[in-house]
Amino acid sequence: MRRKKSSSGIMVLVILILILASLAYLYNSKIFEREAPTIGLVGKIDWNLKKPISVKISDGSGIKFIRAILSDGKNSIILSKKLFEVSKKEHILDIKFPRTGFVSNKKNFELTIEAVDASKWNFLSGNKTIKKSIIHVDTRRPELIVINNSYKIIKGGVATVVFKAKDINLKELYIETNFGKRFYPTPFYKDDHYVSLLAWPSYEKSFKATIIARDGAGNIAKSRVRFYLKGKKYKVSKINLKDKFLEGKISDLAEDDNPDSVELSKLERFKYVNETMRNNNEKVIKNVTSETQKSRISSFRMKPFYPLKNAAAVASFGDHRYFRYKNNLVSESYHLGLDLASTAGADVVASNAGEVVYTKYNGIYGKNIIISHGLGVYSLYGHNSSFLVDKAEHVKAGDVIAKTGMTGLALGDHLHFGMIVQGVEVRPEEWMDKSWMKDNIFDVIKSAKKMIERK
To answer: What is the average per-residue pLDDT within 23-36?
Structure first.
């Protein structure tokens, strides 16, 4: 009897263990997973009704059921209801506004999305997620009006535009050009008004600028800025390369920038300096000078730039240079500044106040200084022998910032002077001309201000 009781007790214990083990297995198996579905729905959406609202729904055990309901607070409609015969790990639900069966003149709605997975958890009913979003229907484009702009723009030069862009939910605002460059405006004078300088690169054949305003719902307004386009022919130079130059200055620059260039031929080193190195140096300048002012301005004034006293121009802006060696074309480049020379080690002066944003050795530009003057305008000073200012320092008009030199790709002591608007190198001559600055920038802004006041 004792043996029978003992055997039956062991049998019960084994069965109990097996039951517990089975339950534990089921509890921890994917069939009974306890993670609710994920619904990629944000809390507030602005909608122009042109495109569906795409919502990603996913779950580890698979989605079994989806339902989407739209309500205006009084009436509601089921936009989508899906029961999947075979559960799906992921589903993109495209929500479209109902064209029939739902009449509402309201602008704000509540979207509710419910998802149930294929898990056997919750007494075989699965895990459920419910997410809600406030939908604001906005089908109106932003208000966009050009108030004033420069009459003309010269190839390689700059123009001004002042405009109004208004939308309660304005998200993006910029001026798109035909060559892919975007200029970003600065808030001006009163709410919803903006000003921007635009630049036409000297190497681009044509120029077109269109203001683009986009709101949070995706509505877009566009307005073309009309300029009289004035072409300009820039100098073309054919330069014969000398062995002394290739084996001296070029070799030193290449090896300083890339020690491996010692393995290159003298012509390969020249191409490296004139193309690869130049491109890298100009990228640095573009990155530093692409920002524009974000705080509101009411006016903008500058004096003409005269960075070097009693200087003579020794190389012009926009010069398209073709380099030849023994009658063979080797490389080419554009000279995007004005070279000025006086005496060796002459004072380089900041003609206008601004913040120093760059003071480093920059390859072909040598010891390079860049100053920000506001509204996306920057002045650049290259080939200096020394720095007399530091980055982040605020300089006043008339401050001496450097001494001229021949660092970088310079064969003689001179200053490489450049003007830049939002990353685009432009004609320094315009910024040295008091009448041009008045007619094309200051008067345009002043007149626009009066027009805004009259409205």
So the answer is: 65
